[in-house]
Design a protein that fits this description.
By secondary structure, the protein is an alpha/beta fold. It folds into 3 domains: about 250 residues, Alpha-Beta Barrel (TIM Barrel), CATH 3.20.20.70; about 120 residues, Leucine Dehydrogenase, chain A, domain 1 (Rossmann fold); about 160 residues, NAD(P)-binding Rossmann-like Domain (Rossmann fold), CATH 3.40.50. The strands form 4 sheets. It has an 8-stranded parallel sheet with strand order 7-6-5-4-3-2-1-8. It has a 6-stranded mixed sheet with strand order 10-9-11-13-14-12, with helices on both faces. The longest helix is centred in the C-terminal third of the chain and has 17 residues. It starts with 5 loop residues before the first strand and ends with a helix. About 45% of the residues are buried.
Length: about 550
Amino acid sequence: MTDMKICASLSSPEDLHHPETAASDSSDSGIRDPDTLNPDTLNPDTLNPDILNPDILNPDILNSDMIEIRTDLFEKSGSPFRLSEFLSELNRYGFSQDRILITLRGKTHFPDDIPENFSGFIDSDEDIFPFSRAGKFRRISSYHDFEKTPPADEICRILEKACQNSDISKGAFAVRTLADLRSIADASLSLTRGKHDISAVPHILIGMGPLGTVTRIRSALLGNEFTFASAGQPTAPGQLSVTEMKESGDDCLITGLLGHPVSRSASPAMHRAAFASSGIPGKYLLFDTPSADDLVNLPDVMRFYRIGGLNVTIPYKTAVIPYLDTLDEAASKIGAVNTIINTGGKLTGANTDHIGIRTAFEKAGVSLSGRSVLVYGSGGAARACLYLFSLCSGKGTTVTVAGRNEKTVRQVASDFKAVPLILPGRDTGNAGSVSSVSSDSSVSSISPVSPGSVSLRPFDIIVNATPVGMSDVAASGNSPGTPAGNPPENIYPFDLSKLRPSHIVFDMVYHKKTPLVAAAENAGCTIVSGKDMLAGQGAASFEYWTGRKTGFEIMRQEIS
């Protein structure tokens, strides 16, 4: 762990005190034992005994190296505030002026209430530093762009201009893409390698927003003089708390989720719980990437910021493959990646979905050997199932894959030596009939069927690997109560009333109890949980990144 300085940003005078009386969540306060306080950071001449009482002072303050007073936010907080009095209070708590940063965001003139003898830091986005006080405090000239991150060369020019009348130049930019993260990284390399005249001037580079959080953690890699964290409400988008930053350290294992959208995923809660339980210093971040064109920047971003691994979700499980160095066997055969492992800069694509599926069957006490399986669907989820079942083909397991897209059904059946069953409906090219094509491509015709007429009798295991059942419109088979006008994509190709207690049912739609699962429960079937699958694949990813096998139970508890 490197010794990166962390500056606690205060948005209100109340942030100084215990979170129960400040605008933050006391349930995650991270109260620090007074015995662990570093006496080297305190001023013994002015030390107030209350500093040793964590019920008095905000633990984020106790954990910080510096304190930022956001005067603009103080003024908006509605709390009584005089800067000179607040500085005196900080002094009574042992914080000397060289650990204090006064930020004058949006000020057009230098405030009169900054004491004449102030010797700390003053940050301004305007050139308002009085010439008469030069040398008495350290000047930080800031530039903020809340809309975008410019190219690296422009970032360097901005900092060059900022340093002309300052001791530290600071640039903060809205990060919306992987390309933005790469621009900040490239700018830092230019600055630290002496490619610009300001290489000798300390700088601070920050990416704002959730995608920019990695720049705050990897502040040392960017060559920053120090980094910022919150001591109450975040004072900038993407900001973590001081306690979070201190507990993980700036060399922690960074993992996350790549896709679009990512906000509704269960993965962040699962992996953060696993990190907390294992005691491994780590962060799980969101890398929401709206455009597939941005994936070209992924390798450089992962390598520069030392991102140890990523989960990959829709729509990039296939699109990400060209940007990786190698694939494991499962990812190669399934044709999709849901996990990336960064090993010393080598990016490996893996697929843990099949491990999650295997885990779900194991948790249900179901052996796959000697089973006859019907898989409904021919997309990525189906391919993960078929890959797992193909590993059991030598144990007497046979698989039929059913779907309406004739091309993909035939392809996936050929890839995994399954029997294709083409259903009537959209994109089939033969909507009036069902064809069964064996693995050696011989064709036999079967009489026309309608949705709900696929017999379940030959099968032991029924798998739904489609979104059917996810919609708020009730999905069903060809049974009484089917809503009038129910579209084909919301109807199962088998009659739910034909389920028997001997059937084993696995629905990969895990967000809700689907009509398939409800009917299976009523019929007394064995249910294989989609939530167990989700936790299983997550635990496998966690093991790839950390070497720990402790993830499943912890992750399963996070899935409601």
